[in-house]
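Forwarding the complex inputs:
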Amino acid sequence: MSAVSISHIYKTYGKKKEVTALTDISFEVTKGELFGIIGPDGAGKTSLFRILTTLLLADKGEATVDGFDVVKDFKSIRKRVGYMPGKFSLYPDLTVEENLNFFATIFNTSIKEKLALSCALIHKPSVLFLDEPTTGVDAVSRKEFWGMLKSLKEQGITILVSTPYMDEASMCDRVALLQKGSIMAIDTPKAIVEAFAYDLWAVKAPAMLPLLRQLHQFDKIIRAYPSGVYHHVVVPKGFSEEILKEFLVASKIEGWELHKQEPNIEDCFMSLMTE
Amino acid sequence: MTKGTVIQAEGLTKQFGDFIAVDHISFEVKKGEIFGFLGANGAGKTTAMRMLCGLSMPTSGKATVAGFDVYKENEAIKRSIGYMSQKFSLYEDLTVKENMRFYGGIYGKSDAFIKQKTAFILEHLKLEKEANLLVKSLPLGWKQKLAFSVAVFHEPEIVFLDEPTGGVDPVTRREFWSMIYEAADQGTTVFVTTHYMDEAEYCNRVSIMVDGRIEALDTTIALKKKYEADSMDEVFLKLARGAKRGE
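Prediction (whole assembly, two chains):
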């Protein structure tokens, strides 16, 4: 039995259902898996988490958590899952002062403490839902947090975690790349990178901005964009290195350095986005 | 102050009771520079930025921003800078055009200036068709780019960007950085915080704050060499792991 099973989930908002949040979402999360939902703000991550934690009803489709239906068995689900929401909203049943006190406490706690809290509320949750736990968190705390998730996974807890940071995908067993309410790809991080349908080159020069402007003029490549120290250049598979070199020479770019580059999840995400 | 310096801080300090949030930081930022202001959560970045924006009075030390003193001329500072944060949003219930009109008005710009600048931005962002739409109806990526344009609408000398790209999709993140490059190319100084270490590489120089102090400040190439690291991520981890302060 899957820890989480989602089948053709749709969700819209608005009186006329004019805002689409999720379109035909289906996937399974195996017991004990660390599963990442990777996508930017507005991709539908929170809607999906709220449906799975029985806080929101889908328009269409079915989902089970730990074998329980999110609609019919919502009470059972609430007893056995942990949920760490990303963005807090005010509690209407508390007074203004109580809300202020509550949030003063929450905002003073680190993500590590919040995670501990999410686990502690339910004794050993079967599934843990963490919605953007690392957003706005620095690189050091993010690394430590992922370390904590690894040890929770070792205890057999299934974890669904969402993040807008593409580099965190590599920490997951499998990931779903979510954009505008649809899943663009779903697989292990390694398989997603291997499925990159192009060749990728990395190029740098002392003057990076003129280099990028030149690359943007080059119609034989698919696209070029900054990626850390280098600019990444996406080209059709089997594209000749000589053509790239000739272009750099002809463009009078000085001191350039070029090498073939393994794509990362962000490269894959961008390619899938623009397809 | 040396020529071409737009931000100068010397021993700038902010104390809240016993807690020294910003501890004697000294640095200079040059005109047209993209300056990355990095640090772990709680290192003191926001407090330092608030002092530089004229929003918070330092406990001690000196600083000038755009030639104005942070103690005595904070109102003049506010007029000379632009500010945008991830959370800072445009007025969702105003149209694209109304937002620009509003910010232009706040900064006391003339009708002619506002009209001309609005037309320029709409064309530049290819938002002419959306000019009269409510901001809330725009996709997130467009809002982000519009928010930047509004932050520099009054043509400030310096723009402070506090985690401007958090949560944004990777394509929009690049488009956003092209806007930063262009602004810097035209002489606007950009002071930016980010948690994306690849973005640190796009800065001319970066500083890394640890426990209220600036522990390192240089070009990314020099920092990687100094800390024998392959990436800025590694440099950051090496420095910030030594932090005593929690979040």
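The first helix of chain A runs from residue 45 to 52.
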